[in-house]
Amino acid sequence: MKPHSNRLSDEIRARFAHVDTCPFSGPRIFFENAGGALTLKSVVETSAKFAAIPDNQGRDNPASAALVKVITDAKADMALFFNADSGRFFVGESGTELLFRLIRTAIMGPANRGAVIGSTVEHPASRSAAQHWAQQAGVEYLSVPHDDATGQVTASAYRDVMREDVTVATILHTSPVTGIANDVAAIARAIRAEAPDAFIIVDGIQHASHGQVDIAAYDIDGYVVSPYKMFSRHGYGVAWASDRLTALKIETLAGGPQGNWEMGTRDTGAYATFSDVVHYLDWLGGEVSDKTDTRSRIIAAGASIHAHEKALTDALLYGLGNLPGLTSLPGVTILGGAENEDREGLVCFAVDRLPADRIVANLNDNGIRTHIRRADHYSGNVLTPLGLDAAVRVSLCHYNTLAEVRALLLAMQEMTLPIVSDQ
């Protein structure tokens, strides 16, 4: 598939709030999508609508019945987006909170507790949870090393560390530092080949806005996303839990409905704004394909998003016309490798003689929003083995354009001219 046409890009951008202007600083290009994507205008409208409704769910009145229907419809939309024909969807405080909860349940719930396995590439949302609750349960945590050069962890790497006593495994779908995706289905197969009954929990927070999610193809037990990173809003996370994970002794109100993951009255607006995201992808899939059913349109939208973002990252890496790309910069390091085919809408880089904080500040001065990743508790697992204290993350989404990439490359060229002239 080709990148989006100018007409379609304009229509896409028209559906997002603050697409080219910050309400605080004025005109800007937004390349900080991994920190939180732009918000659909429909999500803003829906949030305001439901924030004004005083009624709760579960009451005997028309407003309450309408709220329950919105939640029921949203869970059906979630099932379409995630392609899940079983299990349960629910919302929580955030993606991180939900990962902690699923992982805690998987580790502490079974009567016979065994080892826990995860990889060094994981975000602390899953790795910290797994290590903490493994310690609380008194079981061993097995650490799978990722490949520093590719920024990935492979099924083979899991296989080398796997043991038959593993009862819980965690997988990162896509790294928010490198932007490189991992093969969830292959890793899950490697885990189940050794420990077929293990509970497998996946962090899909970075992946969700860049490609399709297909729970039916993964053979897993939990999947978590943060909707503010996929065109919705802050304030909630979405989790899917398999039936067998739900059958464990989950934390719930005594005497309440069996298998109920939700704590207290949920925000109907959270569910409704996730439906807005699904409806948007349904629209986009109809624009780029002749499909008529929603799931097929979601698949088509995901393929189109991937193709457009690849065109953007290729331009960022290799240049546009006579304008050189990041790979032409002197002393540049591209995290995950420039030629990595599993890249999803993100390029993270460092330049030997130009500190990352100076690059980010300079780009900001040019109206281009990026982000610095430091070797801290969030990113040190990836940066420290590469000998980097910090790197610049340029994270794109399908509403970004080649013209915006060109503006960044021009700014980088101006910044690095003194380095080039010294050589």
From TrEMBL:
The keyword Cell inner membrane does not apply. Pfam families: Aminotran_5. Residues 29-248, 304-408 form the Aminotransferase class V domain. GO terms for molecular function: transaminase activity. SUPFAM superfamilies: PLP-dependent transferases. InterPro entries: Aminotrans_V_dom, PyrdxlP-dep_Trfase, PyrdxlP-dep_Trfase_major, PyrdxlP-dep_Trfase_small. Keywords: Aminotransferase, Pyridoxal phosphate, Transferase. It comes from the Bacteria. This is Aminotransferase class V-fold PLP-dependent enzyme. It comes from Sulfitobacter porphyrae.
